[in-house]
Structure formats: C-alpha cells, structure tokens
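Progress against Task 2.4 (sequence-to-structure conversion) is shown through the following example record, which the project officer requested during the mid-term review.
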Amino acid sequence: MSGTTSIDVTVRYAETDQMGLAYHANYLVWCDIARTEYLRERGLSYRTMEADGLLLAVVEAEVRYRASARYDDRLRIACWVRDVSSRRVEFGYAMEHAPSGRPVATARTALMALDATYAITRIPVEIRAALEPIPDPVRL
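Structure tokens generated for the chain above:
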C-alpha cells in the first residue's frame, strides 16, 4: 500500500483475556505503535514535536473488529493519513493476520494539535507537509 507504513506485532499473552483473545483495548495500542512508526518514517517524532511545544492529542478513536486476534498471532498493522487540516489529523489503520492476510480490524483516530498549555493550536506547515493524505486503501 503506497503512502502507508506497516508494522508487525505479535499478540503477547498479557494482551489476551481469559478466553485467549486479544483484549479489545489493545487494538488501539497497536494503532499507536503503527502511527508512531508512520511519523518516524517521515522524519517526525513525538519526542521532537513535544520538545518543540506541539502535542497531538487523540480526540476520536474508532475500531471495527472483524475477526479475533489470539495469543501468539502475528499481526500486520498498516497506517496512513486520511485527512489533515490546520489543527487536526486523522489516521486510518488496517490490521490483518500477517501469515494469511485475513482482516482482523480496521480503525481510525483523529488527533488535535495542542500547544504546551494544552490550548488548540495549528500544526506547523512543515509537519502538515509530511502528513500527506491518501484515499483509504481498505474499507473502514
């Protein structure tokens, strides 16, 4: 998928519930890992942005579960930018069982730009330029 970043994660035992299924909240953690890597591949990092006074706070999150992930499954998570504006960026995610390509979940998160005092601010032009939106490569 062009314009995307993909990472692999293995479902750890601590990420599962009593039934051996990945606990639902962990899907958002995996989105965060993929989003962080997406930024890193484009020369951006949360650490640098925060040191420069820009915070990106999650203001919306949505996950659509399509199949269960289980302990020791290897998942591939793709991340891309769906939309970016002066103060907000929306990311999309597609999670699949890595060996088979079987869809596991899709997700989206919206992040708002805040300054060091937590007031809404603008995303600097050079950061917005690195966050190039693409059409969703999968149906969310």
